[in-house]
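Below is how a single chain appears once it has passed through the pipeline. First comes the sequence as given, then the structure the pipeline wrote out for it. We keep one example in the README because the format questions we get most often are answered faster by looking than by reading.
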Amino acid sequence: MSRFIIKGRHKISGTVRPSGNKNAVLPMLAASVLTDEPVTLNRVPKIEDVQVMLDLLESLGVSVESRGRAVTLCARSIRKRTLDPTLCRRVRSSILLAGPMSARHGRVTLFPPGGDIIGRRRVDTHFDGLQALGIRVRAGTKYILERRRLRGAEILLDEASVTATENILMAAVLAPGRTVIFNAASEPHVADLGRLLVKMGARIEGLGTNRITIKGVKRLRGARHSVAPDHIEVGSFMAAAAVTGGRLDVGPISDIASYPIISRVFGKLGADWEQKGNRLVYSPRRSLSMKKDLGSAIPTIDDGPWPSFPSDLMSVALVMATQARGTALFFEKMFESRLYFVDQLISMGARIVQCDPHRVLVAGPSRLHGSHMASPDIRAGMALIIAALCARGESVIENAQIIDRGYESVDMRLRSLGADIERID
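Resulting structure:
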């Protein structure tokens, strides 16, 4: 267990080089079991969730070699087909081995995945899609998947689940015939996984849309791929600069076209940035102020499947709203427990009314003061750090190791940008 001690009211300014996307690299690691040739990934973030996933793969017999932020995996000698239950409970991404392991290695036994407690996170969509491809699923206290006759299929997802889309996509690339995934997730990290699979020899069309078509191949080969920058991390650092009045230069960014979706909401909170080539630059021009809807109506900030505003940035956007002049309604549509952390913001002096588990009303600006808090999940933990950075006095955030699961060396990187933050183990 560790904690952060933060003294607020220091501007977050400087240059940030984004880490690789956490939500892209985890399925890419799982994809390594689809071939017996080496798969090398560059720009792999050194975070806890990645390390647990590597431990899971090594326990199955995958060789792992790390050099800096490059990781080479080779699944030539898979020894086991049962995942370690303790490691499964530590990460949500353990479920991503269901599709590739059963499709290529015939069988896999998994245990219920862990991850953040932000609401119910069902796996039905995963298993429905895999069963349509010819994989038998037995579910109870553990999940046993067995490949029968792998075949292409037309699959309509009952929800645009990111991890279900990834699981089905990884299995379908080896399924003879044609597979079409309707209502597929179109997030940037799903498309980035698809780009890796194409380099490995997969035949995929429609990446970045909600209709993905796959023509199965007999085998995949090894490949090298650089993980795209993490747009959630970029948004988090931008929010920290905005609430503290700092100037931030972020880049290089390869998927620059996806950032207008984030900047639209940040702009609604008064935090506009400029695009300069493959970089994003935030310069404070005035104090934050919320833009009202037509007729001076209170604006609503909500999330949803891509290309809606990502749920993973709702927590940090909410903290920004506490420092912006005006009122906004936040509507969290994806997870019923995502907004429970607002009690801790209220204890810091934020003016927030929680209407129900999915909606909160924020009136700003509020003068926040330091407080003793605990991180409930990765994104709420980062939001609490941002709140502490702009608060008067000293804040203590327990469970710092939870934030480490999604943000690499966050304390050192913030310190390099001017923050007064210390980690106590």
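The CA atoms of residues 194 and 207 lie 7 Å apart.

See the next section for the split statistics.
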